[in-house]
Amino acid sequence: MQAPDLPTWAAIIVGLLVFGGAVITLLGAAGLLRLHNFYERVHAPTLGATSGMAAILAGSALCFSVLQTRPVIHEILIALFVTLTTPVTLMLLARAAIYRDRSEANAGVPPDPESGHGQPER
């Protein structure tokens, strides 16, 4: 089982998927430099990592499925775990930051939907 055994049509598709996934992930990482505050920055790498991971894993699944002449499902499990854990991590980080910023009365905090403003009630 060697990569030279991969048919040309599959190698082209795998290459495009892996390259596309890498570009999407890079754009998500570039969002860290482009965006201004934590609340804006937290979305770009999360979305980039999830979308990029999906394309890279699709390419990997295609490559190994063609080479082994049977469906390979390891990538589906990886995608499931990454897709479930990335948004949960985003929510936990954002909630911790909002709690900290509201308790310290920092500026630029997203508004509290219950109180109608970003500052904690006293």
Automatic annotation (TrEMBL):
This is Cation:proton antiporter. InterPro entries: PhaG_MnhG_YufB. Keywords: Membrane, Transmembrane, Transmembrane helix. The chain crosses the membrane at residues 6-35, 47-67, 73-94. The keyword DNA-binding does not apply. One of its GO terms (molecular function) is sodium:proton antiporter activity. Pfam families: PhaG_MnhG_YufB. NCBIfam families: CPA3_mnhG_phaG (TIGR01300).
